[in-house]
Amino acid sequence: MQDAPYTFEVPGPHFVPSHYDNHLERRLSALKGQFADAAAVEAMLAQGDPLLYEVYDFERPHVPGELLHGISIVHPGKVGAEYNMTKGHYHQVLETSEVYYCLKGQGFMVMETPEGEWAVEELHPGRVLYVLPRWAHRTVNTSPNEDVITLFIYPGHSGHDYGTIEQQGFRKLVLEENGVPVIVDNPRWQSPAQRANA
Question: Is 17 a member of any domain?
């Protein structure tokens, strides 16, 4: 961990930082249960375990006042008709936000609140997205043959809550239909009231 102000480069075309502290790889098996087409997941896993996305980040204290930051790279591809995506998460400290700056590729950020509000925003190079407090978020790569790469920054004490999303996914899915991305309802998503009565 750096103990003085520091800089780093994110040179194209791959935008991997010139130095970093951690490199995370997420493969299809880590998102099992998140894609709509379970049969497609099993068929792909029978052939291997493809890499869906990577994160390069910098080690900073997980405390208020710090800003955690790094580069997220979502690779192109689909599972069935559903585009490659990140696991997606809420912040453990729900009232914290996050900023994304898209460096490369085309995609979407799928977002929702615990109460069921949702939003889907386009990602393309040069676009900055501010994810409000209380909003879960997931990056989806709709580019046919290039990575979606973003720079992310969020408060040091935010934490990650993946478990809530793992239970039922996001309210909206991004699928390919007739060669273009479409946003559809997730059939296994339930409202807070439905979950309470389940």
Answer: no
* 169 inside domain: yes
Ordered DSSP codes for 53-95: EEEEE----SSTT-EEEEEEEEPP-EETTEEPB---BB-SSTT
Which two three-digit tokens encode residue 133? 């407090």
Cis peptide before 64 (omega within 30 of 0): no
| Verdict on whether the full-model pTM lies above 0.90 | yes
Q: What whole-number distance in Å separates Cα of residue 170 and Cα of residue 74?
A: 18
CATH number, domain containing residue 79: 2.60.120.10
pLDDT in tens, 135-148: 999 999 999 999 99
- CA 196, 33, 163, 58 torsion-angle sign: negative
- By residue range, what is the domain housing residue 32? 22-197
- The type of residue at 54 is E
Q: Give the total number of structural domains in the chain.
A: 1
